Amino acid sequence: MNKEPFLNVKSLVKADLESWSQLVSVLSDAQAVESKQGWRSELEPGFRPMRVKTGWTRDALYVHAEIEDADIFNPEKQFNALSFTKGDVFEIFLRPCDQDAYFEFHVTPENQKLQLRFPSAAALAVPRAQPGLLPDWFINHPVIESRVRVNAAIQRWEVAVEIPFDLVSEASQPRRDTRWLFSFSRYDYTRGQERPVLSSTSPHKELNFHRQEEWGELRFE
Question: Which residues contact 43 (CB under 8 A, 6 or more apart)?
Fold first, then answer.
C-alpha cells in the first residue's frame, strides 16, 4: 500500500496531556501534515491553515493539531452532539489497515467531543429511508481524552487527543511498522458567514471526508 500523504507516527516514551509544554516538546521534531482543499482549483478566500503531528506509546495514539482561526467558537456543550453543524470542529478519521471498521472523532474549541464507529465504508453508503447516523454508530460513553488551548489574541487554537488502541485496533495491537489509514479535517465557521470553510489533510477530489481512497497512511515508527 502506498498512500499519500503518509505520516510517520513518532514513538514516545511518555506523553502527558496535562502538560502542554511537555506535549509540544516531545512532538517538536515529529513529522507534520497540513490541511488543504483538494476539491478546489485554488484555496477559497477564508481558508486558514491547520498543522497536525502524531505520536504513540504502547497504549495509545496521540494527536496534536495547531489550527489558525479568525473566529474561534462552538456553542455546543452536549457530549456526542453534532457540533459540526454549529461551529468550529477538528475531526480525526482512523482505520487500521487490517480491519473494515473505522472511527471518527470530533473536538471543538470548548472541548466538546463526538465519537463514532462505522462498521465499514460500505455501511455508510447503504441507502436508508431517513438519511443520517444510525444510533449503533455512536460510542455512547467517553473514551478518548482531549485537551484544548485557545489563544484568540493570535487567532489560534490547539487540540491534543489521546486515543486508546483498545478502542480502535480490533484485529491486532499496533507495533512498529503498523499501518493505519488516517485523515484530519476541520469545519471553520465565522459568525456572519453563510457556511463554514472546510479543509482536510487528504487530497479529496470531491468534498466528502469519508472517501478513504484519498486518506493518508500513518506509519508507526
Answer: 36, 37
40 in Cβ contact with 208 (< 8 Å): no
For 40-72, how does the pLDDT look when each residue is reduced to its tens digit (9 = 90+)? 999 999 999 999 999 999 999 999 999 999 999
Distance from C-alpha of 79 to C-alpha of 138, rounded to nearest angstrom: 11
Question: Residue 122: which residues within 8 A CB-CB, separation 6 or more?
Answer: 100
* 20-35 pLDDT, tens digit each: 889 889 999 999 999 9
Query: Which residue ranges make up each domain of the chain?
Result: 6-220
Task: Evaluate if pTM is beyond 0.90.
Answer: yes
We find that the CATH architecture of domain 6-220 is: Sandwich (2.60)
**Which residues lie across from 149 on neighbouring strands?**
158
